[in-house]
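The instructor's notes for this session suggest beginning with a concrete chain rather than abstract definitions. Hand out the sequence below and ask the class to guess, before any prediction is shown, which regions might be ordered.
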Amino acid sequence: MNKSITVAMMLAVAAPLGGCISFGATPPDTLMTLTSTASVPVGQQQDSARAKSIVVQVPVTPTALAAARVPVQATPTTLAYVKDAQWSEPPARLFARLMSDTIAARAGRVVISQVQAVTEANDQLAGELRNFGLDATTREAVVTFDAALSRSGASNTEKRRFEARVPVAAIDAASAGPALNQAANQVATQVADWIGR
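After discussion, reveal the predicted structure:
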């Protein structure tokens, strides 16, 4: 069998499969992210010898928030996802980064990583990001964070729930991003003020 016939046969067999093969879902036109409204100015030096340090851990999340999609509480017992709304990375990581920026700017804390924390005394902020999506019944973006703070030298852990709700005009991708960013900043501000200097 010559080479051209073999190639033609392979193409004939593969042609019907073209519509069946998929390399993943089609990504949305844009990906959402969070932007802190409070951040340390570029070039400002931070020194843990002069200010308290803190480790901000990525919060744990329920399964509904582990994906990059935006959940919608359709009824008290059902969830859906906002069409064409997707985060650039898991929302828990985005939220932890936003909190780190806000705590550094508002509380004057030096935010360090878990690896850097091995050699020095510092506070630890952990917790659970319980809500990070839209509530269709109230038409609001909702961010709920259960914080757990362990202060350096203390044997106890302080816990506190923080929540922010921001109205949305519609349950869609265009409304979800800005409203969730605003709510996340409100919660991060509350957390930073609670932690203190």
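Then share the key points. The chain has one domain: 50-195. The radius of gyration is 23 Å.
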